[in-house]
Design a protein that fits this description.
The protein has eleven helices and eleven strands. It is an alpha/beta fold. The protein has a nine-stranded mixed β-sheet. Strands 7-8 form a two-stranded antiparallel sheet. Strand 7 (about 235) and strand 8 (about 240-245) form a beta hairpin. Helix 4 packs across helix 6 (about 155-175). It is globular and about 50 Å long.
Length: about 325
C-alpha cells in the first residue's frame, strides 16, 4: 500500500465501523486501527489535586514509569495509522526521567503533552520548543497563589507562570511551531478570574480552554461547582447531583482512541482511571490482537446496549450537553 494513503484509508475503515455500530449494537469489530492513542508515561504526580485519581491517592493500581522499549513497540505497530499521540493520562508526564526520549520517538505524528507546569525550567522549556512536540497543555486553575492552590494542592503558581512565560519565549526565539494551550478548570474559587486568565493567555501567545470540573468525590460536588450553570458538569436535582448527559448508548473512543497505561495495559478510554476494564496487555499480545479481541468486543457491545450500567461511563463527557465557552 502506498504509505501516504494508509492513514486516510484507515480513518475511513474505522469511521465506517463506527457508523455501523450506531446502526447495530452487534457491530463490535473495528475494520481499521486506532487513529489516536493516549500513553501514560507515569501515574506518579508531584501535586495532590483532590479530584484527581492520582493526586488524591484514590488510585489503587500500582504506580510506575513506562518502559521506553514497551512504548517503542506500541508506537512502531501503530505509527502507520496514527494522526495523534497523547503523552499523558494520569500523573505528571514530565516526571519521567526519559521524557524527551518519548517525545522524540513520536516525531512525524501530531503529539500532545499535558503538564501541571512545574517542570518547565529554562532548560526543559528550550528542549520542548525544539522537540517537535505539537501541543503543550499547561494547567493553570487560578491567577494567584490563593485561588490556584485551592485545587492544585502543593503547587506553586509563580513557578508555573515562570515556566509558561519561558516556554513561550523559547518558542518565539526558535520560531517553533509548538502550540501552547492553557487549561482552566472553572470552579467556585476561581470563577471570578476568567477574564484574568484570558489576559494571561493573550500575553503568552497561548490559546485558552475553559473546562468544567470532573468530580470523583460525590459528596464534594456542591463544594466545587461554580455559580454559572454553563460551567457546571453536573445538574442539581433534589439533594443529588447528576452529570448533564443522557448517557447515549455509544462512545467513539472505543473505535478511535484507546489508552495504554505505563505498564502496558490497554484500556478503553481516559475515564478508566483505575484500569477497571483491561482489554489486554502489550507485554503479551500485539495491539492488533487486543483491538478486536474478545474483551474489546464484549465491552463495545455493553456500551452499545446500555452504557449507563458501566461505572466509568457515568462520569464521562461523551454526550455531555456543554456550552461553548
Amino acid at each position: 500500500m502506498i504509505s501516504y494513503l494508509q492513514k486516510p484509508l484507515n480513518l475511513i475503515l474505522s469511521g465506517s465501523s463506527w457508523i455501523s455500530s450506531l446502526m447495530s449494537s452487534e457491530w463490535t469489530t473495528v475494520r481499521g486501527m486506532p487513529v489516536s492513542v493516549s500513553t501514560e508515561l507515569t501515574n506518579f504526580c508531584n501535586l495532590k489535586c483532590p479530584e484527581c485519581s492520582s493526586g488524591s491517592d484514590q488510585m489503587t493500581r500500582q504506580r510506575g514509569y513506562m518502559d521506553i522499549v514497551l512504548y517503542r513497540k506500541a508506537i512502531d505497530e501503530l505509527r502507520p495509522f496514527l494522526y495523534n499521540v497523547n503523552l499523558y493520562f494520569q500523573g505528571e508526564p514530565m516526571m519521567h526521567p526519559l521524557f524527551f526520549s518519548f517525545v522524540d520517538y513520536c516525531k512525524g505524528i501530531h503529539s500532545t503533552v499535558s503538564t501541571n507546569g512545574h517542570f518547565l525550567s529554562p532548560e526543559n522549556s528550550e528542549k520542548i520548543a525544539n522537540s517537535g512536540l505539537n501541543r503543550l497543555i499547561v494547567s493553570l486553575d487560578g491567577t494567584d497563589q490563593d485561588c490556584y492552590s485551592k485545587y492544585r494542592i502543593g503547587g506553586n503558581f509563580d513557578m508555573v507562570m515562570d515556566g509558561l512565560r519561558t516556554v513561550s519565549e523559547y518558542r518565539k526565539l526558535n520560531n517553533s511551531k509548538l502550540k501552547i494551550e492553557i487549561q482552566f478548570l472553572v470552579n467556585r474559587f476561581n470563577q471570578h478570574q476568567i477574564s484574568e486568565v484570558r489576559a494571561i493567555a493573550k500575553r503568552t501567545g497561548a490559546s485558552l480552554k475553559l473546562k468544567s470540573m470532573q468530580i470523583i468525590n460525590g459528596e464534594k460536588t456542591g463544594y466545587w461547582l461554580p455559580d454559572s450553570r454553563k460551567f457546571r458538569r453536573y445538574e442539581e436535582i433534589g439533594d443529588d447531583y447528576f452529570i448533564k448527559s443522557d448517557l447515549p448508548d455509544r462512545c467513539a473512543r472505543l473505535w478511535f482512541n484507546p489508552v495504554i497505561t505505563w505498564d502496558g495495559k490497554v484500556i478503553p478510554c481516559c475515564f478508566d482511571k483505575d484500569t477497571e476494564h483491561i482489554m489486554g496487555d502489550l507485554n503479551i499480545d500485539s495491539f492488533r490482537d487486543i483491538w478486536n479481541g474478545p474483551r474489546y468486543r464484549v465491552f463495545r457491545r455493553a456500551i452499545l446496549q446500555n452504557r449507563s450500567m458501566i461505572n466509568i461511563c457515568r462520569n464521562c463527557t461523551e454526550g455531555l450537553r456543554e456550552a461553548k465557552y
